[in-house]
Automatic annotation (TrEMBL):
Organism listed in the record: Tropicimonas omnivorans
Protein's membrane topology: Multi-pass membrane protein
Family matches, as InterPro entries: MetI-like_sf
SUPFAM superfamilies membership: MetI-like
Localization terms from the record: Cell membrane
Segments forming a coiled coil: none
Transmembrane spans: 60-83, 104-131, 213-233, 240-258, 294-322, 432-451, 457-475
Major site of localization recorded for this protein: membrane
PANTHER family: ABC TRANSPORT SYSTEM PERMEASE PROTEIN P69, PHOSPHONATES TRANSPORT SYSTEM PERMEASE PROTEIN
Record keywords, A-Z: Cell membrane, Membrane, Transmembrane, Transmembrane helix, Transport
Domain of life: Bacteria
Protein name: ABC transporter permease
Amino acid sequence: MRSEGWPRGRVVTGFAALALLLLPFADLTLAGHDPWDALARMGSGFLRPDFTAIEEIGRAIALTIAFAVAGVAAGAGTGLLMAPFYERRPVRGICVAVRSVHELFWALLLMQVLGLSPMTGVLAIALPYAGIFAKVFSDYLGDVDPRPARALGPGTGAASRFLYATAPLALPQMWTYTLYRFECGMRSSAVLGFIGLPTLGFQLDSFFRLGEYGAASAILLCYIGLIATIRIWMRWKIAALWLLACLTLLLSLSSPPMGSGALMRFLTEDIVPAPIRDGGALWPWLSEIIWSEALPGILATLVVAQIALVLAGLVAALGAPAIVTRVAGRFGRYLGHILLVTLRSVPDYMLAYLFLQVFGPSMLPAILALGLHNGAIIAHLVGRQGEDISAELRPDAPRGLTLWGWDLAPRLFAPYLALCLYRWEIIARDSAVMGLLGVATLGFWIDSAVAEFRLDAAIVLLLASLAMTAGIDIISRRLRRHLGGTTPAISRRLEAGDCAI
């Protein structure tokens, strides 16, 4: 129940006011070049896609799919094994920890042990996804009808009850969610290319560095086409064939060996704090990292996240009515749907990379990318609810902005606010990752520590990132519980970190 002491309007005003107060602390400066000239050159190339490098693009597409299929399959299989035991505190703690670390951060750590190998990409996706799948699958298993399991004989073991009476009832929902998660895996796989794995992100980075914007445009079009047609080419009946083909392709890749003992050296030396290895004092070393790297990184991350959250809310408020037929008309809804699909299909990291080419290395590319991507997701959900409500209205009901302003917007304000709060934690986590592009968020300090082979410091900074996102998640959950506004289905998928809704 919503308390009268927490009006929703005041929450929105408070978040907007905080973003305005943080604006002077945000680095929104432009690079020395003319952004409009850079934008014109990019736009000219994007209007003329160049598919002549079809061999490189085709290989990057195949490997993007391969990493996504293998990573999601490994994550789903592991999550299914952990799902029956998810309510046990140690299992739940492990799942929360692994899914709180972004795929790019996992990849940076795994590269120290496995190098730029296929296993690095697969595990970078599988580890966080295993924690997500375990939570969602546990919820699905807990919701099934218990009567079939009770109908089995008293001598039936727990494993048999699970395999023959419980799991089959949840299997359709599990497959549907796995398909949603595969769409997220495609985004993660593409982004892994920015750290050297041979996926679409790697090719996009290469073409941009060469100034071949037509080829970069071709890559983006192919990627959006892949995401838009997933439900056509990825079917349950041929999922095993897809997995076999993808594993065969990944096994054919060669990678430089890391040498024997890399894992043991990583566990027993690299991540052990330097003072413990050298017999020194731990606190001076730890306090130096906290004050000179962790706190500045956290503050910069929070500045980016807060401003991006308000921008996402503004984008959602403007975009949601654009996909409601009675508000925008059929043609307007079609255009709005294309725009929102494009913005939510392209990963925010990839959008930030594109904006980086135009505006230079500041907080501005990260804020724009996070705001547009997450705003499109929220607008899609709110607009879809608005379409459902408007379909039940009388034929002679008002249309256009009158309908939106006086009828739909008041009804949708509560779920709109709740969805913004859901995305807050995700925006904060992704704001930290933007540091890998040069923005001074936590990811910048983590990347610097890894590059300098200070993996012990990198672990401390990762723990700081986890603490920050956990704190935001706690505040967000309490606000959502107080304000209400989302349906159980949307709540479950958003709490699981779903990016494909």
